[in-house]
Amino acid sequence: MKYKFSLALIFVVFTYFSCEKCELLEQTIDDPNPMFDCADLMANIGDPCDDNNPDTTDDTINGNCECIGGGTEFDCPDLMLNIGDACTDNNETTINDAVSAACECIGESVFDCPVLGLNIGDSCDDGNPDTENDAVDANCNCIGEIINDCAGVLYASRVTIENNSPTGWFFDSAVKTLGMDFSFSNIEEKVNGSLVSMAPFFSNFAAFDRINNQYAFAYQFDVGTPNPLYLAETNVFSSTFLEEEEYYAAPVFSNGELYAINVFYDAPAAQYTIVRIDQNTGATTDVFSDNITVNSPMLKVAISSATDNSGNIYFISATNLIVYNPTGNFATYVDIDDTFDADNQVVYFGLEYKADEEVLLAMKNKSNSPSEFTDLVSISTDGNYQVNTVFDIKDNLGLENDQEVSFNFHSTTFAQCDNTYYITEIKDLEAGMTESFLIEINLDNNTLEETVYPDYLFGIEIFEN
């Protein structure tokens, strides 16, 4: 009996524990990770883990069973990047985007001038209607070239002739537009009793003061007779005649003052006197005189004048050049062409100043045979007074012209803007002063154009805007 009881007790105990193990076994079969909050991670919420990101620390399991780093080592946490890291600024006009020291994603502009979005030399628009060819300069400014159509006004004196007698004296102007012929309009008729004479006058004795916008023409008839000086203020137009019996040549403005020259020639000696003309009374004041020995004739009829950027005044007659400095009140005489002789009678006239090259321009004429010619020449002003041929006038004149510009009946002016030398001369002296040539020599294109105008045009001067 005793033996049987013990066996029964052992069976009961074994059966109890065996059944508990059965439940555990069943649970293990149904759930392979029976004790973890996050079975996939085989870890519980809050457990340490590794998110495999070297830039995080204190990685732990969060409530969503994710392994999240609890700290960061980025210089720029918002970008989750460090300074210098590559990034994208979403700007198509930049390259090599990188995180800046201010934790901004900044790219390098593909343009020289990022603000304009353009490169140096690119076309642009400066917003100025008076410019053209706008382009980006080295300072990233949009700069245009000022549109310069070389506009200006050509002033001229004019006389109408009927039956070889003057019937009217006029002051005209023509608007100068690049590429267009001049169309003259009358400003006023000159009324002066001394102008009724048909005595010869030198048609190149005009001057223009660009400081005061004043035109001047000196009608020089003869010694001891009234020789009226016509002055016209062209800005707000007004005019006057001043009469003096003084007989001078080649008036020229310098720094607002009006000068001229008197010459007394008795070959081979010449005496000249430079005078200053009072623009209110017409009275003259002698400012400088000298006696010189000349190789070529020094005649009033052929004298012309010009002034340079420094205010120096130049008078030329035949081969004789006088350079006068009003500030220092001294003058220099130069024979610019010592080849003059009976067989080589060269005359220089139509003096103008070309500012951009700092040279004088003049016509050089040889009228005796053989080898007649009329050239446009330059004369250096550096003290050497070197003469160089610039343009062959004679070979480019039309068939209507006699192939020679008259040094008695001509006038000249020079337009700096379009580099053009202008000449007027009487068309046919024998037929009377009924028509004139206006000759334009463009030194940029090396071209000559001539136009015939009615009446006798003389004393031309250009005003450039």
Write up this protein.
The chain has one helix and 32 strands. By secondary structure, the protein is mainly β. The strands form ten sheets. It has a four-stranded antiparallel β-sheet with strand order 11-10-9-32, with no helix packed on it. Strands 12-13-14-15 form a four-stranded antiparallel β-sheet, with no helix packed on it. Strand 10 and strand 11 form a beta hairpin. It is rod-shaped.
Which CATH architecture of the largest domain would you pick? 6 Propeller
Q: Which CATH first-tier class of the largest domain would you pick?
A: Mainly Beta
Name the CATH superfamily classification of the largest domain: Kelch-type beta propeller
- Main sheet properties: 4 strands, antiparallel
Query: What is the CA-atom radius of gyration, in angstroms?
Result: 49 Å
Count of extended strands: 32
Strand content: 35-45%
Structural class: mainly beta
**How many domains comprise the coordinates?**
2
> End-to-end distance, in Å?
146 Å
Q: Helicity, in percent?
A: under 10%
CATH fold group of the largest domain? Neuraminidase
Q: Strands of the largest sheet, in order across it?
A: 11-10-9-32
Shape: rod-shaped
Mean pLDDT: 85
> Unreliable segments (pLDDT under 50, ≥5 consecutive)?
1-29
Count the DSSP helices: 1
